[in-house]
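G., the chain you wanted modeled:
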Amino acid sequence: MRAENRPSGFDYLRLFLAISVIAVHSVSICYGMQIHLEMWGGPLHPMLKFIVPCFFAMSGFLVAGSLERNTVPAFLTLRFLRIVPGLSVETLISALLLGALLTSLSLTDYFSHAEFWRYMASIIGWVHIYLPGVFENRSPPNYVNGSIWTIPFELECYAAIAALGIAGVAKRPILFTSVAILAMLAFSAKGMTSPSYGVSHGEMILPFMFGVAIYLLRNMLPFSFPLFVLSLTLSLGLFYFRVISYLEAPFVAYSATYVGLLNPRRVLLVRGADYSYGIYIYAFPFQQAAFELLPGGTFWFLNIAYGVLSSGAAAYLSWTFVEKRVLEHRAAALSRVSKFIEGLRLRFARL
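Predicted structure as tokens:
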């Protein structure tokens, strides 16, 4: 399988998936959870299931390359610099601006409420999604950001692959792939049935692991369109049957990495920037706000349009003034981390 230096396919796929999340959330925001659950129970179920595992599979493939190029401390530093700054700003905007504007409580009660301070813990990846008095007449009430619940699982995946990197497993493709296969079989053998609504822990962790495995085996695997079609078909088919749903992981991973490794011509939207993360973390609260404040925001199609435009603008500002500027200092951050680790090593050597 070819693995070129940052093909554009990954950027296009991430944008497509982020906008797909906006479309899915528009149903629950505009028509309530009952209609949303009915949609998940219908023929769209496999496609809805595919979205988040696809994100995780793609992440596994990409971060495996980062771990291969860096030490484990450097890898974790880079992951921190990519995730936390944007998430911190989104949390502050949601809590200090959006929440303060829309809460039914007095500002004194709002800012002193325990739920407000719990929400602020999202800054460091300890995600909370409720704010006091905000969207309280919605279903579920006080539900501010329904997207960021996946971030702790993403961080868990980074910690796991870092641990495997320390153990040397990440440099042994066959061994790592065997571990991934055994994990998949363990989920299936325990009779762990995929939930009818949403995505389970295993349906995120396993595609991530197989994304890593595909990167490690990239020189052995074919880059094949027929194999992509087969993998995509099996992914959707296995998601349809909840009892064997966990067997989808390698097929989701191959489907995601195949599309990601395509390299169509870049348009301005994906040239030198990554807006998908900002779109993903900002869209839900903006869609909620559009439902309450904007004309036509209660209609799913307009809600999607409002969500794409508002989160797209926020993603642009976040990338331009926060995320990109932080990443420009990653060399200095890596140098400090390297010196700190070396200092610890020397200190323990003297003991």
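DSSP finds 14 helices and no strands in the chain.

Shout if anything looks off.
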